[in-house]
Amino acid sequence: MNGNWPSDMLTEILLKLPVKSIIRFKCVAKTWCYLFQNPSFISQHLSFNKKSKRLVVYHRDGDKDNVVIRLFVDQALVFFHDLHLPSPFASIDFFYFCVDNGLFCLLDPSNSVLALWNPATREFKILPKCTQNIPSKIYTIADTLGFGLDLLSNDYKVVYIRWYQDLEKGMGAPTHYAIYSISSDSWRIFKDEDVEFLRDYYVCDNSNNACVNGVYYWQTFKSNIDHGSFKVLAFNLSTEVFQLIDSPFSGSGGHLLPLHDRIAIWDTDLLTYKEISNEVWVLNDDGHHWTKVLKIEIPVLQVQKMFGFWKNGKVLVESVTGELLLYDLEKEEVQTRVGVDFLFVCTYEESLVAIAKQ
Fold this sequence. Notes:
single chain
């Protein structure tokens, strides 16, 4: 079927195809079908796509009063299309999600339904209910997610943290920590002694967290202290162990995001309306201490938050009016006004990663 094409050259060509084309070409030959399911090919294809990441903006549609996942298809952030979620998420007003290697982990907070979704392959799976060690009648007060790849086992895992009230006893209960893996298609509940040191901490929602090199990071703070209590909660997806890390600015929250394969935290506090300054810190290799790598000043704009670098010296920022902007640091000007009324942003790349248990 390959004709006179050397197999290595043919593979190089196929690696550059979009997922939609690869799925269509599965029927060309059995050898191609096997190739597209090969873990090495899937990994190489993902690595190629990571070079041209796209921006995902989660925002409210003002006309329809619902939430939309908008995928920008160009680097200038001008052209886009909306991702159409499968049922039951297509009909709900609000949901949480995390993205890693082209996979979405979705949570409907109204009924604690979790799902995995690959928009490129259209594979979708609702996860089994996580009810172990939870009373039959509860009210969920808050919940948050973690999601990423275990680099040792090459297995994708979901961390689900839930605060709830026991309705039968009429009282609050300890925070519930659980982890799901695709390979086992089941949940494991953390023992109380493994998370006892987190008892007084509240883990922030998914608009402010990130996964880097097999470790998921959340912003967290002590629920009974007003100031000076912010920390970073790290979870190693391989060892399945939580760790608290001191924040470089414990008196205020920041924005966590990947920066050159390391976790970075951006000081997003508004200083004054006349001069806004954002410090960027990265976590050192020791996993405990931070180093300040730069301080960005944008005097032209009234900026209240920065979401990270985009392309060619441009940064994504949120203005004090709630508008998402692409700002050129070199020219000191707004390049694109991306949109308003957004909830958070993240990057995305197409992948062939399967959700079903292999």
